[in-house]
Amino acid sequence: TTGFALTGGHLRVVQCSDCHKGTLVTAKQECLSCHQVQYDNAKDHKTQAYPTDCKMCHSSDDWLNSTFNHATTTFPLTGSHTAVLCSKCHANGFSGGTPTDCNSCHSSNYNASIIPSHVAAGITKVCEPCHNTTAWKPSSFNHTTTGFALSGGHAVIVQCSDCHKGTVLNTRTDCIACHQVQYDNAKDHKTQAYPTDCNMCHNSTNWLNASFNHASTSFPLTGAHTTVLCAKCHASGYTNTPTNCYACHTAKYNSATNPNHLTAQFPKECEECHTTTAWTPSTFNHDTKYFRIYSGEHKGEWTLCTECHTTSTNYAVYSCITCHEHNKTEMDKEHQGKTDYIYSSTACFACHPRV
Fold it and tell me: What does pTM read for this prediction?
C-alpha cells in the first residue's frame, strides 16, 4: 500500500529499520540508498562509474546474478558487440555521454587501413556504410549507391585514393578528372583540341581501343567520309567545326571547269549535285529539274554545259537557237500563224519544254 511492494529478498528483511533509518516518512526508494556498500565493493562499479540505478542489472529475486539488457539503451548490442567487454567501449565510465559512433571505438582500425587507405582517400568516418557488427571485414561497400558504378577497369582499382584525392566528398565523375595525363600524352588530343569527354571514344572495359561513333553527332559520316582522317575536317580542332560541304571542298569548287563553278557563281550547297558516295560524277538531275539533256532528242548531242549556257556567270541564261540548224527566216515561216511566236530561246522553251 506504500507504493513499494516487498518482493524477493526484500521479504526476508526482519527489521523495518534496516531500510527506514529513524523515520517512515520520505524513505528513499532508490536501490543505492540501501545498497551503497554493495555498489562500493563491487568490481569496477566505482572505478568505471557504473550507473547507480541498481535495478538496471539487479533484481530483488536474485541480487548476485545481475543481467543487464543493453537493448533498453539507445545502443542495442548486435553481432560481435555482444561479446565485447563493457570497459572496451565504456573506458571513461558509464555515465551519460558514451559515444555511439563507430569511429569512437574503431579509430585505430580506420587509421591503419591499407586497402583502401582510409586516411589518404579521405573516406568518411561513418563506418556503417561499409562495415557491420557481424563481421568488420571484409567490408561491403556498394559503389553503385553513389551514382557512379564501378565497371571494367574501374572495378579492379585497389586504392580508393587513386580517384578520391584526399576526400570522398564532391569527387568529380568526369573522366578527365582522373585521365588528364592520358589525354595530354595521347597523340593529337591536345594539338587537335579533342573533346575532354573521354567516354565519347573510350570505355572502362577497354580504354585503349577507342571507338568514336560519329553518328552520335549532328553530322553522321556516310560514304567516302567514313575513311577520311579526323584531322582532314577538324584541322582547327573539334569545336565549332563547320558541317557544310563547301567548308572542306572549297578547292574543288574553285577548280571545277565543266561547268566552271566559280565564274558561273554556282550555289555553294554542294549536296544539290554531289554525294558522299561519289563526288564525281555529280548527280544533278537536269532532266527532272529543268530540261531533258540526258534523254530524249538531246541525249548525246552536247559535251559542255557552255554549249547551251552561253553566259558563264549566269546559268539562268541559256540559248536554244545557237545549237539548232535553223535561222530566223525559216523559223518565222514555219511558225506562221502560231500564237505568241517569238524567235528567242525562252520562247522556244515555253513551247518545247520536254523535247
Answer: 0.50
